[in-house]
Amino acid sequence: MLQYLAILVLLTSALGDQQQGLVLVKSDDDDTNDDKVKVAPNTEQFDEEDLEVFQPSSEWQSIKPGQSIPAGLHVRMNLQTGQKEAKLMEGDDGTKFKNNMDSEKKFITIDKNVISKQRLKEALKDFRDKFHDESANGEHSDQSHGSLTGGKTFRSIDEIRKELEGVDLFLKKDIEEITKHVEILNTSSSSLAEKEHALDELEYYVHQIDNARDLDTIGGLSLVIKFMNSSQESLRTRACYVLGSAVQSNLMVQQSALKQGALPLLLRLLSKHEPMAVRKKAMYALSSLIRLFLVGQKEFLKLNGLEMFVKLFNEANTEPLVIKAITLMTDILTEQIEYVTSLLRKQGQDVSGDISGRVPLLKSMIEKGWCQLIPSLLHTTENDTREKVLQALHVMVTGCKSEFQKAHIQNSLKKLKLEWLKDARGSEASDSSEYAGILAQLVTDLMSKLT
Ligand SMILES: *[C@@H]1O[C@H](CO)[C@@H](O)[C@H](O)[C@H]1NC(C)=O
Ligand SMILES: *[C@@H]1O[C@H](CO)[C@@H](O)[C@H](O)[C@H]1NC(C)=O
Ligand SMILES: *[C@@H]1O[C@H](CO)[C@@H](O)[C@H](O)[C@H]1NC(C)=O
């Protein structure tokens, strides 16, 4: 009996985190066609801070739902329990993973070797697609032979397919599944648990660009948006999650969600009356909705999104949201500044001066007092926040230079620099001294921009 369908060797290219190769058996070929699978622009939305790091060993270990695992492991799925499991590749003593494991270097754990829940889902999805491909042309490639479990048994893809008969995991077409879940959401007699499950399932499917479009086409996206307004917290949370995953790097669906009024709803869900779980997913969805989407960004400004963020800054215990908000602002500023700069360059204009007036977000931020506001966040004791604040200051310099040159800000920067330099030179080399070194460098660079 086939208990385990074994599987995935996740190869990480040394160059980028957007080139996860996925093959059935160990292979050096990066044969993944990434066209249809979205790459996440960054790791911000993965909630990695909530998850414990997976410690690989030579034994199979279960991967907890949502847990990140490093690339380069054998991963398999136990079809009986539905659990994913992972272990080190043969001949791997695991030392290369150790460094990442026992550290608190938060800056560095946002690392190309950490794959997220999303990645794992994409990997599994990709794997399933391969099954479709195989059945389509009826042939088995060389890669379908080989040690699927890392053991000695070899099976052809045909044998596996036979044993999988009755298991519909790979066989149903996505659109049928999506339609089924949408119908459950559209049936008033569905139970809460059924609706929760339907949303969870949709969240899995919509990472693929075509699936997200299909969801919109059949009217499912508008249902999801309706559920963002549900009186049930668990449905609001999940609906935000689905929306965020559906719109991420998917311009057509971003446009549609914006048209259907998702943005004002998301801003409302960020408010302090909402439970933190809802707010976090709303922030994820908001980020996905307006990243790389200038029209959405302008709408965000029009709807006073910046003021909503200021409220977050002034509220206690919102650190995770504040970090995400600042990260989002920094990313969008970078995006807009690059866009404007390249546009001006093309027109042969000078870009060395202050271009802040032509960058919509920066212009609003300056008008609304963010040149004063952001530096004041340096007073937090959280290094994570201070790191994000410094990165924000870096991109804001172009419009806030005279403000940042003021003595009180210079003094805070100097103080931070001294503190971090001291820690960086600490007694022995450690992750925290490395992190302090990175932070000290960040301040130093910023100060050099201000002279
Ligand atoms: C939901 O059900 C109604 C009829 O009850 C139908 O008109 C509508 O198209 C359905 N919506 C979706 C998204 O399936
Ligand atoms: C959300 O629900 C409220 C009532 O609870 C309603 O007034 C509002 O129109 C709804 N908004 C959307 C976008 O459906
Ligand atoms: C922040 O970093 C500094 C310098 O590395 C360190 O002394 C301090 O303990 C860290 N603070 C927190 C809250 O982790």
Structure in words:
The chain is an alpha+beta fold and 451 residues long. Among the domains are: 170-303, Leucine-rich Repeat Variant, CATH 1.25.10.10; 306-450, no CATH class. The protein has helices at residues 95-101, 106-109, 117-137, 157-164, 174-185, 192-205, 209-217, 220-227, 233-247, 251-259, 262-269, 276-290, 294-302, 305-314, 319-346, 360-367, 370-376, 383-404, 407-424, 431-449; strands at residues 4-11, 21-23, 61-63, 69-70, 73-78, 84-88, 114-115. The strands form two sheets. The protein has a five-stranded antiparallel sheet, with helices on one face. It has a two-stranded antiparallel sheet with strand order 4-7. A hairpin with a 5-residue loop joins strand 5 (73-78) and strand 6. Mean pLDDT is 77; it is low at 1-50, 99-118 and 127-152. The protein binds 2-acetamido-2-deoxy-beta-D-glucopyranose (3 copies).
Give the topology.
Elements: E1 4-11, E2 21-23, E3 61-63, E4 69-70, E5 73-78, E6 84-88, H1 95-101, H2 106-109, E7 114-115, H3 117-137, H4 157-164, H5 174-185, H6 192-205, H7 209-217, H8 220-227, H9 233-247, H10 251-259, H11 262-269, H12 276-290, H13 294-302, H14 305-314, H15 319-346, H16 360-367, H17 370-376, H18 383-404, H19 407-424, H20 431-449
Antiparallel strand pairs: 1-2, 1-5, 3-6, 4-7, 5-6
